[in-house]
Design goal:
Blueprint: H1 5-23, H2 29-44, E1 54-58, E2 65-68, E3 72-76, H3 77-82, H4 86-101, H5 104-108, H6 123-130, H7 138-141, H8 149-165, H9 171-182, H10 194-197, H11 204-219, H12 228-235, E4 239-240, E5 248-250, E6 253-256, E7 261-264, E8 270-274, E9 277-281, E10 287-294, H13 299-310, E11 313-322, E12 325-336, E13 339-350, E14 353-362, H14 366-378, E15 381-382, H15 386-389, E16 394-400, E17 405-406, H16 407-413, H17 421-428, E18 435-436, E19 441-446
Parallel strand pairs: 1-3
Antiparallel strand pairs: 2-3, 4-16, 5-6, 6-7, 7-15, 8-9, 9-10, 10-14, 11-12, 12-13, 13-14, 16-19, 17-18
């Protein structure tokens, strides 16, 4: 059944804090103010101007923009690195507003379609354990809604209309789609990438160009803006890729400079880091370790709360010492929809907080993973190495070429390693062999 306007707003209001808690907001006032200002400007001339639209920039390198019912629109800092002017931003922003005004999310939404935060783990683990592992449920599931071709075309049309109405050249939106076509689809960090929620279409670039021509003819705007320089000025210094202060992997070790801890990662396992949780996943995706902050003044209190909330059947538990920090350990069984999960938990008191590691697998295969799961937990310790603490993130740095040359030559002249050339070609939306005139500003990656 289609959601009412009130239901949509309520759903968005419930989802928004979950999204923010999970991914965090990117702390850059000028970028946030720009996205909000342009978004509000388009929302006001949209087909549903009565909604109280909210615009957020999420602190994740995943390349995506998405909307949830009720007027909530999200850009990631990852997508901002791949956009090259204000007109491209306006086109994508208008496209997402179009999903809201055409009620695509509301039409797609149903309880059965909500996905748990992916984790890359088997469905039985992520769905069953998610309810007490601190994962947001309904709100994050909205991020996984995939729109069909007709809905995407309608949103493209609305994005072109809205961005043209506020004076931008909607043809630039096609340039971004061309960049996406050159990229390899993928997901990272638990948040779906653009390809997961926006199906590709071979004729999409041509459609957008045709839509833009029609809109410009019908609306006849006085002057169409692109505003490349002002956009590049705005994203100068944008954090690119993972931000190490919030946690990073080097070798087989996870370091968290802000919170001053570290722990090992088993060989071939993968770490996924979000502001609210770190997940370490086995290569066969049949076991996972989750680390998060928990409520409780002591490890014993936190363990008792977990036992109650999860309905855990405790096999054994006891006090322990983890590299000088008091801890409570527990092995328990939790009934899941598709079988029993066995969980090894370490509740550790550290720096006036209680952290918990939950190591999870199916009961039948737990013995195969227990040593690896516990190696992560037993290796938790204070981070004191200043070389691991004082790590700066990569950032977008904009440089100007002084003479005409190809993008490849420009990037090489700025000291770009060969391994980064193709990536920077995508970021700039220009082929490496394309000749750029003198004075062209080029995005590079630096500190």
């Amino acid at each position: 059944m289609l959601l009412s306007d009130a239901d949509e707003v309520q759903l968005g209001q419930q989802s928004d804090p979950q999204v923010i808690a999970t991914y965090g907001l990117y702390d850059d006032a000028k970028i946030s103010q720009f996205i909000t200002a342009k978004g509000k400007q388009m929302a006001a001339i949209s087909h549903r101007p009565q909604l109280d639209y909210q615009f957020r920039v999420l602190d994740t390198p995943v390349i995506n923009a998405f909307a949830v019912p009720g007027g909530f629109v999200y850009f990631t800092r990852g997508i901002l690195a791949y956009l090259n002017n204000e007109a491209e931003v306006a086109g994508v922003l208008g496209h997402e507003i179009g999903h809201i005004t055409a009620r695509h999310s509301a039409k797609q939404y149903s309880r059965s379609q909500l996905a748990m935060l992916g984790l890359g783990v088997g469905v039985a683990i992520s769905e069953d354990f998610g309810r007490f592992a601190g994962l947001a449920q309904s709100g994050l599931g909205l991020l996984f809604l995939r729109f069909g071709r007709d809905a995407e075309r309608e949103s493209d049309e609305l994005g072109v209309e809205y961005s043209t109405k506020i004076g931008y050249d909607a043809r630039e939106m096609a340039n971004f789609f061309e960049t996406l076509d050159r990229m390899t689809p993928g997901e990272e960090g638990g948040l779906p990438g653009w390809f997961s929620t926006h199906p590709a279409s071979s004729e999409r670039v041509g459609n957008v160009l045709q839509l833009a021509a029609t809109a410009q003819q019908n609306l006849n705007p006085a002057q169409l803006k692109v505003n490349r320089d002002s956009y590049l000025d705005m994203i100068e210094g944008l954090v690119y890729g993972d931000d190490p202060k919030s946690g990073y992997v080097e070798g087989n070790m996870f370091y968290h400079p802000d919170l001053r801890f570290q722990f090992p990662i088993p060989a071939e396992w993968k770490a996924i880091n979000t502001p609210s949780q770190v997940q370490v996943i086995s290569s066969d995706q049949k076991a996972v370790v989750m680390l998060s902050l928990v409520s409780g003044t002591t490890p014993a209190d936190a363990a008792a709360k977990f036992q109650t909330d999860a309905g855990a059947q405790v096999i054994r538990s006891g006090d322990a010492d983890v590299n000088g920090f008091p801890a409570r350990t527990m092995i328990s069984d939790v009934q899941g929809q598709q079988g029993v999960l066995r969980v090894v938990s370490y509740f550790i008191a550290y720096e006036s907080n209680v952290y918990v590691f939950h190591g999870i697998s199916a009961q039948a295969s737990f013995a195969d993973y227990q040593a690896s799961l516990e190696s992560v937990m037993k290796g938790f310790k204070k981070l004191t190495d200043s070389s691991k603490i004082n790590v700066e993130p990569d950032r977008i740095r904009v440089k100007k070429i002084t003479r005409s040359m190809t993008l490849r030559d420009a990037l090489l002249s700025f000291g770009t390693p060969d391994s980064k050339l193709e990536e920077l070609s995508l970021i700039n939306g220009v082929n490496l062999t394309e000749t750029l005139p003198a004075g062209t500003r080029v995005k590079t990656i630096g500190k």
